[in-house]
Design a protein that fits this description.
There is one protein chain. By secondary structure, the chain is mainly beta. The termini are far apart. Strand 1 and strand 2 form a beta hairpin. The radius of gyration is 15 Å and the shape is globular.
Length: about 110
């Protein structure tokens, strides 16, 4: 088995295994296994370039890092697109496909 084949197998068997890391989530209307790491942020979510990030005291948002199998979503969302995470409205800050695992950085205003 090649390294890339092993990575693809590990997505299902390890990372998105509901007995390990993943849980069922609704991503933009699609129910799928995903890893969602909730975060609270107080920085500029308009850029992924860490040299350009600006921090704002007193301005908070909620966010998440979402990992999902590429084949489990219809398309990789683009930065700035609206995106519903488990029914909560927000937007995509960044989205990257890393060898079949998509990482979506998601942010929403804190309610």
């Amino acid at each position: 088995m090649t390294f890339k084949e092993q990575l693809l197998e590990d997505i299902d068997e390890v990372f998105l295994n509901d007995e390990e890391f993943a849980e069922m989530h609704n991503l933009n209307g699609v129910n799928t296994m995903a890893i969602v790491q909730q975060t609270v942020v107080n920085d500029d979510l308009t850029t992924t370039d860490t040299t350009k990030v600006t921090f704002y005291d007193g301005l908070y948002a909620k966010g998440a890092i979402v990992n999902v199998k590429r084949d489990d979503i219809p398309k990789i969302p683009i930065p700035g697109a609206k995106f519903y995470l488990d029914g909560q409205y927000g937007h995509v800050v960044a989205a990257n496909d890393d060898e079949g695992m998509v990482t979506i950085t998601w942010a929403a205003n804190e309610l």
